[in-house]
Amino acid sequence: MNTQQKSQDNAIVRIAAHLPDLIVYGNFSPERPSMDYFDGVLMFVDISGFTAMMEKFSTAMYMDRGAEQLVDILNHYISAIVEKVLLFGGDILKFAGDALLALWKVERKQLKNIITVVVKCSLEIHGLFDNKEMEEEGLDIRVKIGLSAGHITLVVFGDERRNHFLVTGQAVDDVRLAQNLAQMNDVILSPNCWQLCDRNMVEIERIPDQRVVKGCSFLCVFGFPGEKEPNEVTHALESAVDIFDFCSKVPKIHTVSVGVASGTVFCGIIGHTVRHEYTVIGQKVNIAARMMMYYPGIVTCDSVTYNSSSLPAYFFKEVPKKVMKGVADSGPVYQCLGLNEEVVFGMANLRAKGNEGYPLLGRDKEIKYFMDNMKRFLISGCSRVLIYEGTAGYGKSQILKEIEYLAQGERHRTVAIALTKISFHQNFYTIQIFMANVLGLDTCKHYKERQSNIQNKVKRLMDEKFYCLLNDIFHVQFPTSREISRMNALRKQKQVEKLFMKILEKTSRRQRIILIIDKAQFVDKTSWAFLEKLIQTVPIFIIMSLSPFMEDPCAAANTIMKNRNTTYVTLGAVLPKDIRNKACFDLNVTGISRELDMYLVEVSCGIPSYCQELLLNLDHHKVLLFRARESEEKSTVTWNNMFKSFVKSTDELKIYFNVEERNDVVCTLASGVRLKNLSLPTSLKEVSLIQLDSMSLSHQMLVRCAAITGLTCTTEMLFEILPCWDVKMMIEALTTLVEADVFVCFQNGKDLRLAQQQDASFEIHHRSLSLNPGKGMDDKGFQELYNKVIQCHIIRFCRPMMQKTAYELWLKDEKKAMHLKCAHFLEENAHRCGRCRGANFIPYHHFAVDICLNKLDIGTMRELVKSHSHQRKLPWFPTNHNYSWGTWRLRSRTEEETLAPKLDLHKKPELFPEDLSPKEVREQILGFFDTVITKMKEGEETVLPQESCQCEEVLTITMLPLAQHFVALEENHKALYYFLEIASACLLLGDNYMAYVHLNEGHRLLRILKREKSWNQTFELATFYTLKGRICFNMGQMVLAKKTLKKALKLLNCVFPHNLFSLFFHDHMEKKKHSHYLNQQVQDSPQPGKKRLAELYQQVVCFSLLWKIYSMDDYFHHKYYAHLTAMMQVNTALETQNDFQILKAFLDYSLFHQLTGHQGAWFAYELKAVERICRLPLEGEAIEMVAYVAYKLGHIKFFTGHLDLAIELGFRAHNMWALLQNPNKYCSVLCRLSSSLLLRNRYKQLIQVLESLWQLSAEEEHIFSKAYFYFVCLDLMLYCGFVYRPFEECLQFINLQEENTILRFHSGILLGLYSDLAIWYGRLQEWDNFSSFFSKAKSLVSRRTLTTDYYEGTVKYMEGQVLHLQKQIEEQSHKAQDSGVQLLKNLENLLSQKPTGAVFHPRLYHLMAYVCMLMGDGRNCDLFLSKAMEISNTQGNTQEKSWLLRSKEWWYSNAELMEDQWLHTVLNLPSWEKIVSGRVSIQDIQKNKFLMRVNILDTPF
């Protein structure tokens, strides 16, 4: 009982703190209203500086600043004022924004002494704000105080639910005036207060000629947290007008003034712990109050309210601007004239935001719907309806504006109108506006003119006595007939509808009618009913746009939507390229930075208006920088600008710019801006807050908790951070939120990847589907969704802005606790997937670095573990099998067992005796791979992994959120650890750009940690440089890569030679070490420790890249560095005692020797690699090793021109990787195999491989597979003479995906695609298109890497140069001679480079022969042709051989080439289906080879 009583007392105390003592301890009559009279002293304190401070915090750029700091500062100073008042015996009557009213209730005879006390209190309050601490914090807070004394009346009024109190009287009016007269640091006494005070104690200065104006003010707020609703601005204006109208009718009220302002304000509890209130503070509060004072007798609003109201402009009138006290610049002020919609002729036309010339971007599909329906309407003469549905921001009005323009024509009449929320409540309003336009009344300036028009139009359709029916509709004054006066409203309505139908029938005989209605959700019921009859009676084409109905639409609206001639289109997001184009257009630039582009695409979700708001927000914070674009050739590449490429607008935007006026300007971001932490603009926050506040409290909590986890989380994670929820509660909540488009759910990471594209517009067939507007799905549909959610493992926010908004609602301490919970849960799975044996992405990373939580947080973690020790098995969530051990159905193995098993390096070879011939060795190797494949198929359930690699899913839903949690927790050393892991994972997945982004985040943390003396992690720094070097290498920046890799080796305790003497010394030592490793008894050598292994693995990576870098340099001494680093890779790999590392090193060493022409060495190391895999048991990682060797050998054989062996090995690797379910490796195998088959003209097998590539790209959304697929399709048309996929499809893919970061920052594939397109257009002699793609290819050639894709693309680029030389010669350019000489040198240089694979030599010699032919050098032309033919025969390069024969035959014949020979060939290229069916023979397609034009230069070579 005592506990219950204590709880009740505490509750009373908490409530009492919100009320003054006058009320808490008052003895009131139960009657309402009740009144009390007393004497007292009033103090009005106005605090200046809080509003400016509030504006500063509310517009903070980043999410981690704002409300909480503001609350702390506000309450710090207001609490001090309250404390002073209470100490001096006062009572806080009311907090009013940044002001408060205090009362000292006393007997009349005590007024003199109490006034003295209050004055002293006032002076001490002033003293609170006169200190240096405020100056140091940059705060400028001052107070103005007014005092009054005398009789005061207390009034209490209300009802059974709610009571209010107010104090009135002369003293109240006096204190208000006194405060208004006060300047900073003043205390103003009212006249009565001065008369009653002890004048000997007070020093004064008189203020003459001031009088009191009595009045009463109310502060009304729309949109409090938790109470957000749509159209709040409109509701506020409606309320203002209603209050104004009501109060104006009260006899004793002389003047009514209402000011309405919209924007961000602070709302919350301010004051002292013993006395506080909920209030609002902000500049918008001040503006509303000042407009009320300075514009008496009217309803006024600011420009934000005017623009946000969605009401017609004719509801407002701009009033003269006045200088208002305390308001620096309020902007335009408008008078609200009233919200009763009437037919205002000429003002209800279609309105679309933005200027008239604004382009409609990304809505071609939507316009096609219109064009198709328009065509059917004009041909058939039957009514059609086209409806576009979409939420606010999708650009519905813009689409209709474009349709209005397209619909103009001589034989049809277009009427376009826009409705408002008010229109819905006006009976028959839509049809009135429509008919006013049809009758030509919209341009009439006087009612007599309207009457004349009406008489002319309807004189043959109705009797004159019925004209008066139109008086109220069209604001005319026809005499009212007796017959009409006797009609009831229903009969009048029917007569009007009958007349309108006759008018429209008559009009439609002369011209077709097209009616366009914007915001059709506001069509009134009577108008819907008329439209339903209209489309059945008169041929008319109606185009509408509407937002989803808030309530069930009327029956007529339903009927129209379900009509067989209605096309109902739900608008989807626009493509990323269209968001990019919009940004470029709005900013008037030719390109934007990639980081800005990705931010706009992700956060806007493809909604045009959201993109515009985001840009305005960035501009407001002054983070957008504009500068002239630098030439990529002239700019020096550094780490900071390596990925700072600018995403250009597409060509479709060029028509909207004046080329002469538009400079090549690009937009980038200011230094240090972190877009992911940027706070959203208020307008977008409101969209999310409205949706949040419409949810139940439990659903709000679920959304807020999910926001802590990031954009994506698992269902298990939600259960972890919401432990009190049961299974049924969670499922139902998630189902409801998925239905409401807050979340989208996925069963696994693959589904998540496949769904990363924005929804496009689509057509709904309401005749075959039940209509479900606004109210949600039926019980059956909900149950189906419920069952789907049960199977889900991953949920993701549909829109990032919802996640950001919900995240900002948490308080700082709450956030920290939630982040800690999430981090604790995620760490258990923060490693590679079970398919990859759960290792680190950076081998042995966690052994080399101590990643325990800071001691500060260990206590908290223990409490969390303790409180969640009751974790339970969830029956409905699938277990997180993606990260579990043992998915290979073998015994579980620790990381050290899987990464570093003991090897028998000294064992003598048995598989390949010395007396075997190369052919026998080949057969034995291929036979071994066949045996492995057979065993893999036979033991599929016991040997092979039962699922594909899930590392990408681990990266998305575990590693990335975990790193962000530690950033939020300021656990920088642990955040660094995971960002390095993430960068490594991105490189593993082939995404160089995202690796760069996350490594830069790690770099930022490194700089912070370096300032902490307690932190010393050399390995993390070394790993950072290793990853940096890998990215530089992949991007073709070899100088930077070499520099950073050397830094990494130094930090990894590896001495690297710095001059020739030390080079030869190291070479000698490494040779001895190499011999020692190959001959020692490994069993006798200890296995390296875990930290040492971590270092060795990083060293292996560095050496594997360095030897490739040195191999690409032509300097004499670099070949020694290349040999040394290649050998050091092998030695370091041998030291790890890990099979996989040794195999990779052996095959790399073999490739190095093949590039340098050392026949014996490369063959020996290939045999060593094969011997090693032959001794491994066929289990676990060994299967991948065998598959890797098959692929790598096939790759090497292709690169060196052994095409038949490359194909044999390629098919075996294909079979193995298909069974191993690794998309990236499988893709690499298919790419190389398709290249080999293409050169051998083995088309049937090639098409089968292409089908596998396409299937992989579709099933896994594997962009590289799709890119290579189209690359081969282009090659088939260019070099093989048939079509597998049309050129237009290939071109469309490239245009859509060229900004994909994986393709954009891959060193070869995009170079090959651009070069293919340049060749295509060059052959067609479409030189503008050629130049476009050739210049794009040229920008990528400088990114030189030792990869097949790069050299394949480079050879194609050289072919493009040859075609350009041919053009120069045809045009007799004076530069042709120099260009030809330089081109020949470049071809010879490329041919002489060691990394240029022998497989490309035939094509290079072929091109050199053609250049010599063009230059008139027949002798060298013959020489190069013979060399190309010789190598083609040796390699079995059937494709090049057939082209060489055609070239030789053509060049030395007297036949003349058709002017458009390639165009003729292209138009007649057969499809693959024709070849398969036998309608076209293989011999026939050989004739489709491109014949190079022979235009010999006048000046001989």
UniProtKB/TrEMBL annotation:
Kindly give the SMART domains that the UniProt entry links to this protein.
Answer: CYCc (SM00044)
> Among its keywords, does the record have Metal-binding?
no
What molecular functions are annotated in GO for this chain? adenylate cyclase activity; ATP binding
**Residues covered by the Guanylate cyclase domain:** 41-179, 215-292
Sorted alphabetically, the Gene Ontology BP terms of this entry are: cyclic nucleotide biosynthetic process; intracellular signal transduction
Q: Which residues form a coiled coil?
A: none
Query: What is the official name of this protein in its record?
Result: Adenylate cyclase type 10 isoform X5
